[in-house]
# Entry
Amino acid sequence: MSKFKFSVGPWNVHEGADAYGPATRKPIAMEEKFKRFKEIGFDAVQFHDDEVVPNLNDLSDAEIKKEARKVKALLDKYDLKAEFVAPRLWMDKRTIDGGFMSTKESDREYALWRACRAIDIAKELGTDLLVLWLAREGTLCAESKSPVWATKMLVEAINKMLEYDKTIRVCIEPKPNEPIDRSICGTMGHVMAISAATIDPKRVGGNLESAHAILAGLDPAHEIGFALAFDKLFTVHLNDQNSIKYDQDKSFGVENLRAAFNQVKVLLENGYGSKGEYVGLDVKAMRTTVDEDSFKHLENSLKIFKMLEEKAEKFDYAFRDECVKNRDFEGLEMYVMELLMKG
Ligand code: XUL
Ligand code: MN
# Structure
């Protein structure tokens, strides 16, 4: 029996289109996704704002809230919670060169308007968590924007969100690049610094995604540990990634089982989840996957996480201490390998 609760986003069941080719699978309705999520073993759903209210740019504040309540009712029907809402800022004409740090004031105003609507939606869905994946907040041309100015713009925008709603928690999902070349907030260290600079640091934390840490050349378990040390790991996006290339969102653990084990281990050791945090799986099916297998990567990721949790529960800390005392790291490493490889 797992100690954790799990979450997933509707975008994690997608049609397989990528930058070089069209969809390879049929779309699946939101209700069917909810039904399957619950059956597979998920407890909560993560959302982009426009997955809850598709045409929110064209609606009044009251209409947006009304639409959001319909999705809340659908979640209730399947006994699912909403974990967070994230404003999808990167699709709009006004955010071509970033939202919160666009050089155009009217674009920055739009970005803030949109973030506030995402907060409204979150409240209607019964969650206090807003995730900011800062997709285009950085530069494609390094000289086009001052990184000092851009960083201050991000702090300013987050402060406005914290002021707009006194209970909302803002959770930055750092990523070093893609779709931009150079991100302004690329790692958990950046997130902690941004948090400390805001008017209410307790309400600003991070969402560590395994693939994003690997893209930054860092170990996801250490990034998780760093945020936990400051009590600022608001959620996680676990997945896997084959080295520093395009963002892959592979099933959890399929590339580097030992690194995946250490992510589970650090979460377990530190009681992650005891304050209601979810283990989010931000995984995508391969483009080659057939319609019937549209949810298989989710089932697999969940299964791998739970198998690694069982291994982490068995970890022999006394043996670890003995190895450390004797500086027998070869012995400790072999113990970990055997723990992972033996039945
Ligand atoms: C992007 C990414 C997104 C966010 C949600 O790399 O991970 O799926 O998690 O917008
Ligand atoms: Mn993610």
Observations:
- The radius of gyration is 20 Å.
- The first strand starts at residue 6 and ends at 8.
- The chain has twelve helices and ten strands.
